[in-house]
Amino acid sequence: MIVQREPIVTPVPVEELRPTQITVGMREVALKRQMIRSQSARKTGTFLGSHMIPVVLGPKKRNYVTDHHHLARALLEEGVRDVLVTVISDLSALDKDAFFVVLDNRGWMHPFDENGKRQPYDAIPKTMAELVDDPYRSMAGELRRQGGFAKDTTPFSEFLWADFLRRRIDRDVVTKNFDKVMREALALAKSKDASYLPGWCGPTTD
């Protein structure tokens, strides 16, 4: 018997994708929009072919995104109609309440608002267009690009970094002078206070 080992890949309308989080960093979305605009349609197609959006099938066979929310939002804003998704789990037989409990316990959702506060499951938007801006998530993305921490497989690891920064840097400063405050964020990222976070790569005496 031949066992199918390749992921199931299928095109899905971007506007039908369901988030599993409440926020994104809109600055991150803007950077991805800029990338999409700066390259040819062919190159964008190649990029999307290698950056398929992982989804879990939920009730009514809806596609719930578990990663690449920023890319999905950028594609939506750039008018890209369809995107390839890869189904990592089919939980469509579950009712809505059970489905969200399973997502939560498997680390496939992040029901926290732009203030870092946990919210009930029904606070999660139904479309990518309804995602809310969290500037600290944008800081976390920029921090990783600048070498503040390493990419890590921990689910929603950037949100852990965002919450770390949220507790130490005033929001008004972030919104008024993002580039300047990144210097402070880089110093914080290398400190021992951040050593519990995924991808931490600060100095060590070991």
Amount of helix: 25-40%
Question: According to CATH, what is the topology of the largest domain?
Answer: Conserved hypothetical protein from pyrococcus furiosus pfu- 392566-001, ParB domain
The CATH architecture category of the largest domain equals Alpha-Beta Complex
CATH superfamily of the largest domain: Conserved hypothetical protein from pyrococcus furiosus pfu- 392566-001, ParB domain
CATH class descriptor of the largest domain = Alpha Beta
Per DSSP, the total helix count is: 8
In order across it, which strands form the biggest sheet? 1-5-3-4
Question: Major beta sheet, specifics?
Answer: 4 strands, mixed
Averaged pLDDT = 92
Shape: globular
Helix and strand run: EEHHEEHEHEHHHH
Distance between the first and last residues' Cα: 51 Å
Tally the beta strands. 6
Count of folded domains: 2
- Whole-angstrom Rg: 18 Å
What portion of residues belong to β-strands?
A: 5-15%
**Are there runs of 5+ residues with pLDDT below 50, and where?**
1-5
> Which structural class best describes the helix and strand composition?
alpha/beta
Oligomer class:
single chain
Description:
The protein has 8 helices and 6 strands, in the order E-E-H-H-E-E-H-E-H-E-H-H-H-H. With 206 residues, it is of the alpha/beta class. The strands form 2 sheets. It has a 4-stranded mixed β-sheet. A two-stranded parallel sheet has the order 2-6. Strand 3 and strand 4 form a beta hairpin. Helix 1 (26-38) packs across helix 3 (69-77) and helix 5 crosses helix 6. The longest helix is centred in the N-terminal third of the chain and has 13 residues, at 26-38. The radius of gyration is 18 Å and the shape is globular.
